[in-house]
Write a structure and sequence with these properties.
four-stranded parallel beta sheet; transferase; Ornithine carbamoyltransferase; alpha/beta; Orn/put_carbamltrans; binds norvaline; binds phosphoric acid mono(formamide)ester; Rossmann fold
Length: 303
């Protein structure tokens, strides 16, 4: 593993090794406390963040390293300076980069032009650290991932795309329900279906939330309006109104079906308070696991 750009570039052995290290790092925090000693990681964030920023900063420090945070108004990636020049400059100062940005091409370009590892901390296309933490969280609750039915109800966005690649690799069943014009990207679905041929994963995409949650062990949702799409909010609220995770929808899923959300949530839109705060919600386990799984990713990239 040289970078973490997309889960589609990880093989099963690498995915399982990330999960195994995350599990170990969660139990034995001290064991890895010098792994990044003397190393500096730059965090370039062109969008807001709570979980990703804090879990990376704390995780890097727990591994003995330092971070340099470069927020929205600092380097103005691709505008003040070409992505390739930023990549080459930072490669002379720091040992790794976490990038949260809009265009996925920026992540690809930054990795191509850097001589140090690059981690995708969210792009408009993908959110690989999120999906890895999510499936690690599911693995903690269920023994066999290939027996788990995960239903994603909502926007076919960056989180959904990364879940598609990961569920496909792990032989899971992923049911996606989204409004007609908000399906996950065609090329992602095709690539995931291709991966699924070898793993036995089942990927079903429909426009019917009731159908998608039938037999679900876990129901997952994310915001209807992602960062950068704010101008489309009114139109999206209309298009998604049948795709809310509420108690009536959950009643159609398996008994004790768990509820996930990557957060931040727009309460009252994609999910009700009763469900988000309900007894089957594992959203803060998910949030916690960002820390452990990202430490595992750093350990894989820097060991
Ligand atoms: N889930 C997630 O990535 O949260 P932040 O946007 O707060 O980092
Ligand atoms: N789909 C959301 C995820 C936030 C963690 C967004 O891109 O805004």
């Amino acid at each position: 593993m040289k970078h973490l750009i997309s889960i589609k570039y990880l093989n099963l052995k690498e995915i399982n090794s990330i999960f195994a290290i995350a599990q170990d790092a969660k139990k034995n925090r001290r064991k890895y406390s010098a792994l990044l000693a003397g190393k500096n990681i730059a965090l370039i964030f062109q969008k807001p963040s709570l979980r990703t920023r804090v879990s990376f900063e704390v995780g890097i420090r727990q591994l003995g390293g330092n971070c340099v945070y470069l927020g929205c108004n600092e380097i103005n990636l691709g505008v003040r300076e070409a992505v390739s020049d930023v990549a080459k400059t930072l490669s002379r100062y720091v040992d790794g980069i976490v990038l949260r940005t809009f265009a996925h091409e920026y992540v690809v370009e930054l990795a191509k032009c850097s001589s140090i590892p690059v981690i995708n901390g969210l792009s408009d296309l993908l959110h690989p650290c999120q999906a890895l933490s999510d499936i690690f969280t599911i693995k903690e609750k269920f023994r066999k991932l290939n027996k788990v039915v995960l239903s994603f109800v909502g926007d076919g966005n960056n989180v959904c795309n990364s879940l598609l690649y990961l569920c496909a690799s792990l032989g899971m069943t992923l049911n996606i329900a989204c409004p007609e014009n908000y399906a996950p990207q065609h090329h992602v679905v095709e690539e995931a279906k291709d991966i699924a041929k070898a793993s036995g994963a089942k990927i079903n995409i429909s426009h019917d939330a009731d159908l998608a949650v039938k037999d679900a062990d876990v129901v997952y949702t994310d915001v209807w309006t992602s960062m950068g799409q704010e101008a489309e909010k009114a139109e999206r609220l209309k298009a998604f109104n049948k795709f809310q995770i509420n108690e009536a929808l959950l009643a159609l899923a398996n008994k004790d079906c768990l509820v996930m959300h990557c957060l931040p949530a727009h309460r009252g839109e994609e999910i009700t308070d009763a469900v988000l705060d309900g007894k089957n919600s594992i959203v803060f386990d998910q949030a916690e696991n960002r820390l452990h799984v990202q430490k595992a990713i750093l350990i894989k990239l820097f060991k």
